[in-house]
Write a structure and sequence with these properties.
Blueprint lengths: L1 H14 L4 H32 L2 E5 L7 E5 L9 H17 L5 H4 L1 H4 L3 H25 L3 H24 L4 E4 L2 E4 H6 L14 H13 L3 E3 L2 E3 L4 H30 L3 H7 L7 H28 L2 E8 L2 E8 L3 H5 L3 H62 L1
Antiparallel strand pairs: 1-2, 3-4, 5-6, 7-8
Helix pairs in contact: 1-2, 3-6, 3-9, 3-10, 6-7, 6-9, 6-10, 9-10, 12-14
């Protein structure tokens, strides 16, 4: 806050068009303040966001203005509903800031215009809360809970598309006004498994805590769900589900926009209005998804890593969890299994290749120094002796 106040004072003085020397001094102070602000944010913002303390968040479109934002955890009750109210409110506050870096980190979701994107995420979060209420009333557990959750996810997807199109938005298509929400709901939606949403290993503990307030397993310890560490873990799991669901639905909207040009004006960013830009983005997303599915995901499974997406006020942060994934490893497709086999082969042959290369290097050093080096030395000595005799003969 002190840096920001000083920067505003320097900016006001520069607007008064001072003399050349004073302007140089003020511009130098402006650069120093910008560097100091960047240093403060670098040192404290990430730690504050991780611990849930007081951090810094950008307010301007370009991230120029920084103000303190409270990220403290406040629970109204220790029940499952109280947990949900706290976590959902924190995510709603971040959605309201419309983080710009989504355009680079989640290509499909970032392709939506800021208004429809925020509406989609809010609608998904609201429908998630209604689905949890329904599950709490039914009192389901175990496989019955997961089976019900699969059905509820399809309903959440439909309501998300409905909220994305709005209740009254009608735009032209083939010479007639068509309701956007009705047309989006009429699309054939793939199942949750085909959309590569959050897996069971992350959904099951999230539902157990948000439905029955069960403890959260964190670093080998069972923690009460109302502890700060458990709350932050639940927030991470819910944020990952929300962003993956939103990105999947945004991909369906992009596919529909390629066949309905008028839809781009209302739902997509202005730079995606040209067909060439939209198709280029779709091709980039498809190639990235294939590479993710065939190469990166098998690597993560084999290394027991899980990448989760956490929504922040200034973008999306990827957090890595170490989690055994042996069952998923056994379910890999043949092409994905080749990636893991290549890693296993590299791990098996790596030490032997290093020993072989070391022995080969020692052999080359021996040959160069002991054999070739001595041979060159004898030749050089013979040449010098011959030159010495020639010089002695000419001196006579």
């Amino acid at each position: 806050m002190q840096i920001q106040a000083k920067a505003k004072l320097v900016t006001a003085q520069l607007k008064q068009r001072p003399g050349t020397l004073l302007r140089w001094v003020l511009e130098g102070q402006q650069r120093e303040l910008a560097m100091a602000r960047t240093l403060v944010v670098t040192l404290h913002a990430a730690t504050a966001r991780t611990l849930g303390l007081k951090g810094l968040a950008p307010t301007g479109a370009g991230g120029g203005d920084w103000v303190p934002v409270s990220t403290g955890l406040t629970l109204r009750s220790r029940t499952a509903k109280g947990l949900w109210d706290t976590i959902s409110q924190r995510l709603l506050e971040r959605i309201a800031r419309n983080p710009r870096p989504l355009e680079q980190q989640l290509l499909a979701l970032g392709a939506l215009a800021p208004g429809p994107r925020a509406a989609l995420l809010r609608q998904l979060l609201g429908q998630m809360g209604l689905a949890l209420q329904q599950v709490r009333r039914e009192g389901l557990r175990g496989e019955a809970l997961l089976e019900c959750w699969r059905d509820l996810q399809e309903e959440i997807m439909l309501h998300g598309l409905q909220g994305l199109g709005g209740a009254y938005l009608r735009i032209p298509r083939n010479g007639a006004l068509v309701s956007v929400s009705e047309h989006l709901l009429a699309m054939e939606l793939p199942g949750p498994e085909a959309l590569n949403l959050a897996p069971r290993a992350t959904v099951e503990p999230m539902l157990a805590a948000l439905v029955r307030a069960e403890p959260v397993l964190l670093d080998g310890h069972l923690l009460a769900p109302d502890t700060p560490a458990a709350l932050l873990r639940l927030e991470l799991l819910l944020s990952d589900w929300l962003l993956r669901m939103g990105s999947a639905l945004a991909g369906l909207v992009l596919e529909e926009s390629s066949q309905w040009p008028e839809l781009r004006r209302f739902l997509l960013r202005p730079d995606l209005l040209p067909t060439r830009q939209l198709e280029r983005l779709r091709n980039h997303i498809n190639s990235r998804e294939r590479y993710e599915q065939l190469v990166l995901e098998p690597l993560r499974i084999y290394e027991s890593r899980r990448e989760l997406l956490l929504l922040q006020g200034d973008g999306v942060v990827t957090q890595t969890l170490i989690d055994p994934r042996d069952q998923e490893l056994r379910q890999l497709e043949p092409l994905q299994r080749l990636v893991t086999l290549s890693l296993e082969l590299r791990d098996a042959l790596g030490p032997q290749l290093r020993v072989f290369s070391q022995r080969l290097g020692d052999l080359l050093v021996t040959v160069l120094t002991q054999i070739i080096g001595r041979g060159i030395g004898l030749i050089a000595r013979g040449v010098l002796l011959g030159l010495g005799r020639t010089l002695q003969g000419s001196g006579r």
